[in-house]
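The protein record filed here.
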Amino acid sequence: MVSNKAVAGFSPLISVDARVGKPLHKQIYDAYRALIVDGSLRAGASIPSTRSLAVDLGISRISVLNAYAQLTAEGYFEGRVGSGTFVSLSLPEQLTSCAPLQGAPTSATISGPRPLSRRGGLLSASSASAPWRHGRGAFTIGQLAFDQFPFRVWSTLVARHCRNIAAKELNYSDPLGIKEFREAIAGYLRTARAVHCDAQQIMVVSGSQQALDLAARVLFDPGDEVWIEDPCYELMRQALLLAGCALVPVPVDAEGLHVATGVRRCPRARAAVVTPSHQYPLGVTMSAPRRLQLLEWAQRAGAWIVEDDYDSEYRYENMPIASLQGLDRNARVIYIGTFSKTLFPSLRLGYIVIPPDLVDRFTAVRRAMDIFPPSFHQSVMADFINEGHLSRHIRKTRVVYGERRDALVEALQTEFNSFFEILGREAGLYLTVTLPKGLRDRKIAELAAAQRLWLWPLSPCYADTVAKQGFILGFGGTQAREMRAAVRRLLALIPFAG
């Protein structure tokens, strides 16, 4: 169903020319009639007032009044007392349909050269349209306990800033982000993540994906070799491909990235991109010896380390693991974090902790990309952090997610016995299960999506290592009491299980 909502207050794109022989009111009449007939203006769409259209066109209001009178008389327009003028609701549906104009281009008629960048062709269109990416429900990755979100507190802070907004907040802002928010982030990271930083090193971004893209623009030239974890986060891999990087997959074992293999495969790589606190998707934590080994390699090779610390706040058996950046004594680590997992994804707030000597370079690239980040929610978040709401929310949701994790693990073990190997249960908002030989995760995931069960296959995360078949099961958005039923639905889809 196509919406009939109009964009209030805007005039349709029509023009008049006093130099032609046709009267102005007839030009306005013809323009509106054509917009209605070709479907650009739908039944019920709001029409600008005669006064505002006359001002927009720079002509006498009398010409507009005459055109509107004719359109109303013929049934194209209708007036509503106290509301204004609208496209008539009584017009035949086929007259105001959204069918393409006669001769408009379609995929069947387009011809001739249409050159595109090679970079866009590196990304898999089939991956973006995979059915499990578009569902919402049990096992969906990235779903949170929104029922636990402090809506009243958040609404109060938003209302406070709406009431007290100042003119300067409507102007261009610092490419790094507003100072108060960066100071709040710095204090949080020093306390909760053992990150060595101050506010001058922090850049606010719209989530970790923009952070990866920005870091890649600053650090890498096309053709630069970059270590990636194998398996790894698919969108991270795509961000590096768009930057033109030559990816060097390095296997992950129980201690995290296998640094020795990376050195053997590509000792002079420009960088390594890692998730050391909670590796995606296997869930392992990089051991202390591996962390020191990775830092030593980066210093020796003159390389960078990009640390994506996307959900380290949620560990269930022990305290959160300190950051890799906190061990760095040579300013080789670019640290990335986000509020998408602790608060909500649509907030689109993340941050980069930049080595001091790179701040100017990051700022210059950021300015060329989108000038500066939106400031309103930064101000709200600064208060949310400084008033203690973030720490309380994390403590509360850590308990909730722990209960949901426990319910999922118990249901998997009860329903599947030893059919699955369960990985990464110690932390985060998902766990990973592997399938026995002979089963294909993509095929099962497609069957599951047809039944509105959203299973994210494990195998697409691999680039070079022989791919394990399995699923990445999100549990953050599913109540503990609902977990058993969801697992039973999964059981019914997998042959030989149970």
In short: The domain at 165-388 is CATH 3.40.640.10 (Aspartate Aminotransferase; domain 2). The first helix runs from residue 24 to 37.
